[in-house]
Each structure stands twice: as structure tokens, then as C-alpha cells.
Amino acid sequence: MILSSTASFAQKDRLFNIYIERSKVDFKKPTGYLELDSILTLYDGRNGHRTGLSVFNLLSKKDQILICIGFNGIDTSLNSKLKGFPGSGGGQYDANRNYIPHKLEYELYPTGYAKLKNNADLAITFALPVNPKYPVLGNFDKCKCVVLHKENNVDITIYYYFTRKSEKNLKKHLENTNAMFWFKD
User: pLDDT tens, position by position, for the chain (185 residues)?
Assistant: First the structure.
């Protein structure tokens, strides 16, 4: 399960640092996690569609919890050109609403929480279905996602993959990592 550090790790770390710099965000690695040397493609377990690309991954040292981090830049130049995307109700496309998961229930964090913890404009959480046909480094049964949204900048998606056995410790890991990112503004 634990991958050794290789030359590809330096390349991955370089890509992560490019995203950090481009997004104007500070990153503080939480304690108690090992960095994994791989870029992962993440899939929606309902239909097998690609849902994200993780450019930085952490594995908890004590529990079976994998944290994958992906970035989705916001290109507002398309707002006036595109119509009818999911979530737009056939209306004008808004890249700043791209964080909303397609046909999944999500919960918006309380107003001010995202600003206080991450200097983000808002944060949501939702459960991403996991399917054994699309494995992510092992037998993770479930996935909880947190999206940090900064208007006209970036959506940072943090995927928490866990097993049924490690689910009882998920809340502790969410609290331990909720201040990993700070938007510089």
C-alpha cells in the first residue's frame, strides 16, 4: 500500500507546487500522513466517469484513510459562450458554480466557516460513490469530498477515501486537515 519515493515523485511534487502557486494558496502538510508518489485519476463509482485528477496524495499512518487533492481552475471567459450545462437549468453557464457535483446531494458549510478556516468563499461536502471496478490504491469502500471554492480562481477538491473499519476515525481526519489550505486572496 505504501509506495516508495521515486524520481516520478519529484515530477508530481513539481506539478502540485505549480497548482499551489497558480491558485495563490498556502499549503501546510498535516502531521501523521505519508506522501504518496503517484498522480491518480479519480472516478465516479456510479458510472465510471472521470471526476478528478489528484496531484497530491496523503496516506494516514495509523488509519486506512487516503487523502487525494485535486485542483480545478475557474475559467470565466466561457461564461457568456456556453449554455445548458448540468446545474444551469438550461441557462447561462457559470464557471463559478462548477463545484456542484452532478446529481449528488451536497451540504454547504455554514456561512463564514470557509472564510475563517481557509479564506475560501464557500465550502461544500458530499459523498462520492465508490465502485470496486474503479479502485483507488486498494479496497477503499467510501469517499467523502470537501470542495473549497474561491470565486474566479480555483476549486480545490479534497477526496477522503476510507474503509468501513476506518470510518469511525474520519471525523478526526477531517478536523486534522481542515486548515491545510489558506487562500492568499
Answer: 333 334 444 455 788 989 999 999 999 999 999 998 778 888 888 888 788 888 999 999 998 899 999 998 877 666 666 555 555 555 666 667 777 777 889 999 987 999 999 999 999 999 999 887 777 777 788 999 999 999 888 899 999 999 989 999 999 999 999 999 999 97
Residue 59 belongs to domain with CATH number: 3.40.1000
Show Cβ contacts of residue 88 under 8 Å, excluding neighbours closer than 6 positions: 94, 97
82 in Cβ contact with 97 (< 8 Å): no
Burial class (CB in 10 A: 0-12, 13-18, 19+), 119: middle
Q: Is the full-model pTM beyond 0.70?
A: yes
Structural domain count of the chain: 1
Asked if the structure places residue 147 within a domain, the reply is yes
Residue with cell 491518480: 40
How many other β-carbons are positioned within 10 Å of the β-carbon of residue 69? 21
